[in-house]
């Protein structure tokens, strides 16, 4: 049975109003229910799944926000308020502070937020970070050199992209490299509704750019980094096993959203929150009342999207077939670990799950905040 607080919206309208220039182009990351030529039909995941917390990987973290698994082993974790990046040994839980990122101005929901590894990390050792400064939100990159002493392993940040509006709330902050090797960023409208519908602005958007911060080839609005617009506060980005992009988004008072991302589409905010009765806006594939979700990170594993809930204090499983939800979402870990900020695929049936109880809105236990290893099906 679907919980009363959740309304599932299976299917979505492509919406978006009149077609825009370049809209017929479909770069990697396009959400589409059509299987690629020569690929087998998509299986439908089981209607019900399971979650088991295998172990606590690390504890005693302060305002953790972003997490990036290293290919050589270890997990990089950003601290929103301290502006530091820490390496966690996923086997022993040992924490090593790599360094402090200069220029971080932490206040409200802003600070050092999402982190991601360069698609060429094996050769360039670059770590990307989304951060709030005194003037804006921006994306920087830094060289990580583990041969240097702890505390000094991060090189000076180089700004990749700047000018994203900042505020005490709604700073977005999730960054990720897609299967097309382009850099995607979820931004917020910084508490001001106006920027979300302004295609020339950067707030309330999903942005797509090259690793150097230039508008990515094939973007829907010509020489612009804007990929989609009409968002309130995007903090979750994930691709399924067929390279389709999905995003989670905070609602205001009524509906939080999970969206299938189609380049160039308008997702409605502030003119619409949740599903609408028309075709002007791209409807979410699922929506929740805000006390059941307030979603941040998402990850894909075992045929489902897994969505971390902050206010909802639970991990949602959303089974997919194509870009539609194939069965009612399930909630797990409700209230067991408090606020959940970030979830990252760990390979196979495993996820890394980061709590967020020291962010000023939670009730931290003595060992918060934590990274958990979770097994899902």
Automatic annotation (TrEMBL):
Protein name from the UniProt record: Glucose sorbosone dehydrogenase
Classification via Pfam families: GSDH
InterPro entries: 6-blade_b-propeller_TolB-like, Glc/Sorbosone_DH, Quinoprot_gluc/sorb_DH_b-prop
Residue span(s) of domain Glucose/Sorbosone dehydrogenase: 61-361
Segments of this protein annotated with the region Disordered: 13-49
Species in which this protein is naturally found: Streptomyces nodosus
Top-rank lineage group of the source organism: Bacteria
Lineage: Bacteria, Bacillati, Actinomycetota, Actinomycetes, Kitasatosporales
SUPFAM superfamilies noted in UniProt: Soluble quinoprotein glucose dehydrogenase
Transmembrane segments: none
């Amino acid at each position: 049975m679907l919980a009363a607080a959740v309304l599932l919206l299976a299917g979505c309208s492509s919406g978006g109003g009149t077609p825009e220039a370049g809209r017929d182009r479909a770069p990697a990351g396009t959400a589409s229910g059509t299987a690629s030529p020569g690929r087998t039909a998509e299986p439908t995941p089981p209607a019900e799944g399971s979650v088991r917390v295998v172990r606590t990987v690390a504890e005693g973290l302060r305002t953790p926000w972003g997490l990036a698994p290293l290919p050589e082993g270890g997990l990089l974790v950003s601290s929103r308020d301290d502006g530091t990046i820490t390496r966690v040994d996923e086997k022993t839980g040992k924490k090593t502070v790599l360094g402090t990122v200069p220029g971080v101005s932490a206040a409200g929901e802003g600070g050092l937020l999402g982190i991601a590894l360069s698609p060429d990390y094996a050769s360039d050792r670059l770590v990307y970070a989304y951060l709030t400064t005194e003037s804006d939100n921006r994306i920087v990159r830094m060289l990580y050199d583990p041969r240097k002493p702890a505390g000094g392993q991060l090189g000076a940040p180089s700004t990749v992209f700047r000018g994203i509006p900042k505020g005490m709330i709604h700073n977005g902050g999730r960054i990720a490299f897609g299967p097309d090797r382009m850099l995607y960023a979820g931004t917020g409208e910084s508490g001001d509704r106006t920027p979300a519908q302004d295609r020339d602005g950067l707030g309330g958007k999903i942005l797509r750019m090259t690793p150097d911060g230039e508008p990515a080839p094939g973007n829907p609005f010509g020489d612009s980094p804007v990929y989609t617009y009409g968002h309130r506060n995007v903090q979750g980005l994930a691709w399924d096993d067929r390279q389709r992009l999905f995003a989670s988004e905070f609602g205001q008072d009524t509906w939080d959203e999970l969206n299938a991302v189609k380049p160039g589409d308008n997702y409605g905010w502030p003119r619409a929150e949740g599903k609408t009765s028309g075709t002007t806006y791209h409807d979410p594939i699922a929506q929740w009342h805000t006390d059941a979700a307030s979603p941040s990170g998402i990850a894909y594993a075992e045929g489902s999207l897994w969505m971390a809930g902050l206010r909802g204090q639970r991990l949602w499983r959303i089974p997919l077939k194509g870009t539609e939800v194939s069965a009612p979402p399930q909630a797990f870990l409700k209230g067991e670990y408090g606020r959940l900020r970030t979830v990252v695929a760990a390979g196979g049936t495993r996820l890394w799950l980061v709590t967020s109880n020291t962010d000023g809105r939670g009730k931290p236990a003595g060992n918060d905040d934590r990274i958990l290893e979770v097994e899902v099906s």
